[in-house]
UniProtKB/TrEMBL annotation:
Residues 229-351 form the HD domain. This is HD domain-containing phosphohydrolase. PANTHER family: 3'3'-CGAMP-SPECIFIC PHOSPHODIESTERASE 1, CYCLIC DI-GMP PHOSPHODIESTERASE PA4108-RELATED. Residues 207-403 form the HD-GYP domain. It comes from Pseudodesulfovibrio karagichevae.
């Protein structure tokens, strides 16, 4: 596990959001790049450009957590609520605290921002207005049966008043479009974002320990979308770490396992909460949509340079040794110890944790299920035996971390109720 770029991580999260609806594919990427371009044009320093790029990439995270309707970007009709939810999701992490304030105000007009008197926050408010304009430009360009031509969007922006957007931003947009810079940068969907940014923006690196802390925080964005999965990632991560230790993995590998556990379900950002919350049996199409989360997790995590084995361990949590898993149907020869541990940790957590619609399995039932899956070639026998031999300890630790996560979830839902 290496240092990774903060921007690469944010781009990965942004990519996961895009899977939920064809309407929003590329929207967060384009808003992020447009925000960085506008900020650079008005002379914003590099450190602040990182913050506005992060805000652009993640600006609608609150809408996804609320499962607002996304066809046609119709969540745009509930501007204040999803902005507040996004702010509350992001504000408690030091890497995202400033970006969270831009998310909070990314639908607030410039006239109202001008009267907000928070000491030292003037630049942040301008950056929020940048994200607002970048978001509006992309919606004007994309939403509707055919969207609008570039010239139509440019004319619309030129007609915006200073009550809506700072005049310097309208001028910066005009200069970028007239200079032929803006549209090629924002609308090139083939090049990786990292190739379109200056080196100083990519030089903000996260150490392995910082990345684990970041990913622990980010499990709330993954899990809090559904009351049925509100504590799942926390339970999987802790169980996987305990099993890694019991299997003889060293400290570095245990840290990598925690990171994989925290991020293994990132693909569920692409699954509607109506399916995550469904109590009855899923039909074939619904089950296929839920299964897609493993593919999304793989694509997102493997696109982040520096994750290495973590991406495989996380992405393969639904593979099975007998080849009957998904998404690739890998077999025993192709699955590492780390992947096998993650598979057992995911199953063990899923069947022992309480859900709103049912209690977790008893020890006896859990052991029977795991043993049957091992006997039939689905799960690794040795890892399953570690669970059985240490069940009481593993269950106690899992319960403790999930209780803590549940308290966070309840506090979050009360704030946004």
């Amino acid at each position: 596990m290496e240092d990774v770029s903060l921007i690469d991580i944010a781009c990965g999260i942004s990519t996961a959001l895009d899977y939920i609806s064809p309407t929003v594919t590329g929207h967060h990427r384009r808003v992020g790049l447009a925000s960085a371009a506008l900020g650079s044009r008005v002379g914003i320093k590099s450190s602040s450009l990182v913050d506005v790029l992060l805000a652009g990439l993640l600006h609608d995270i609150g809408a996804f957590s609320m499962d607002l309707a996304l066809d046609g970007l119709s969540f745009d009709a509930d501007l204040e609520q999803h902005a507040v939810v996004g702010y509350r999701l992001l504000k408690d992490h030091p890497f995202l605290e400033r970006a969270s304030r831009m998310v909070l105000y990314h639908h607030t007009c410039w006239k109202d921002l001008r009267v907000i008197r928070q000491e030292g926050d003037r630049e942040t408010l301008l950056l929020a207005n940048i994200v607002n304009l970048a978001d509006r430009v992309d919606i004007l360009r994309r939403v509707g049966t055919k969207g609008r031509e570039r010239a139509e969007v440019e004319a619309a922006v030129a007609g915006f008043t200073s009550d809506l957007y700072a005049r310097e931003l309208i001028e910066a947009f005009r200069e970028l479009t007239e200079g032929g810079v803006f549209w090629p940068l924002v609308e090139d969907m083939d090049r990786p974002v990292r190739e379109m940014l200056s080196r100083d923006l990519l030089d903000v690196r996260i150490s392995p320990d910082q990345l684990i802390d970041f990913s622990s925080f980010f499990t709330r964005i993954i899990d809090f979308r559904s009351r049925h999965t509100a504590t799942h990632s926390a339970g999987v991560a802790e169980t996987a770490v305990q099993l890694a230790r019991l299997a003889g993995m060293d400290e570095r590998e245990q840290k990598a396992m925690r990171l994989a556990g925290n991020l293994h379900d990132i693909g569920k950002l692409a699954v509607p909460t109506s399916l995550l919350d469904k109590q009855g049996a899923l039909d074939e199409a619904e089950y296929s949509r839920v299964k897609d989360h493993a593919t999304v997790s793989a694509e997102v995590l493997r696109a982040i340079p520096g994750l290495g084995e973590v991406a495989d361990w996380a992405a393969q949590h639904h593979e099975r040794l007998n080849g009957k898993g998904y998404p690739l149907g890998l077999t025993e020869r192709e699955l590492s110890l780390g992947s096998r541990i993650m598979q057992v940790a995911d199953v063990h957590t899923a069947i022992t944790e309480d859900r709103p619609y049912r209690k977790g399995m008893t020890r006896e039932r859990t052991v029977a299920v795991l043993r049957s899956m091992a006997d039939n070639g689905f799960l690794d026998v040795d890892v399953v035996n570690l669970v059985i031999e240490n069940h009481d300890h593993l269950d106690a630790v899992r319960t403790m971390v999930q209780s803590r996560a549940l308290s966070e979830f309840r506090r979050f839902t009360e704030e946004n109720g």
